[in-house]
Amino acid sequence: MNMKGMDLYSFLLWHEDMGQELYKLMTRLNEMSLNETRSEPWVASAYYAISINRLSKAVIFAMRGSSYMGMKMPEGLIAKAHVFMKLKKYQEAVECFREVMSRNPERLEPHRGIVDCYMATARGREAMTVAIGAMKSVGQSPRVFNLCATALKKDPLTVSKAKAYLERALEIDNGFLPAIFNLVDIHESDGKYNEGIQLLKSYIDARVSPSKLHVRLAGLLSRNGMDDSAADQYAIALKLDPSNKEAREGLNRLDPTSVRANESSYELAGEDMDLEDEDEDEVNTDFGADHGDSELDASIWEDFALTETR
Hints:
Blueprint: H1 6-15, H2 19-32, H3 40-51, H4 55-65, E1 67-68, E2 71-72, H5 74-86, H6 90-103, H7 108-120, H8 124-137, H9 142-152, H10 159-172, H11 177-189, H12 193-204, H13 210-223, H14 227-240, H15 245-254, H16 259-263, H17 293-299
């Protein structure tokens, strides 16, 4: 297997919550890079550590993956930014994203990362500026239109513009799930649950990834007091994709004794480990610290027992 591009692939697996595949990729990359000189295994390890909430390990892995032979590595910087976001250190995340943006302005991910950071810290106007800037740097596409809508949808004064961007995205790709879900968010914010439910139902039959649509529909049905129908939608999602953790948790939440939830249980990589949420204040995020290689090599995998999915 060629390592080139595997750091980006590990991001995509993490972003799609494909923990089993991410674990397998991480293991394979580490087997191929025994001298620990490549950045790709570190990036994959960082995303896997994030996925199982081992943030102190993710810090170390992202640090090692963000530089190679004295050069800054974009995928490692993006991984580092996502670690900061998990720790709610948004300004530090923005700095990482901006460094990537300065080198690769045509990439959407740093623009999207900064928008997400600004939205998380109630800096909506700055988020709008970055999103509109992405249209100039990246070009017009469903993903960019959706990013603009994400920055605009929270403000009642600009929500109509958000809808217009989403309509443009769906005109280009009528099955673009992020745009569909953003439209549902707008309906939900307006208290128009029925409109959101009907919108999701209209898309379910023709979608390539219908499991996500069923999960989203289940959430809306549950919030509208229709728990039985919500449970049915979660069960359908699990039948279509047994690895859908959100569907399994949703079904268990509605009916902890549900036979359907137990029979559909799917063990993701690392879920059987004894994990505790790490205290954000206790995670050392000093990426500039001088860690000697011997120190890292001796301790980096300590207490990081990786268990392959059955």
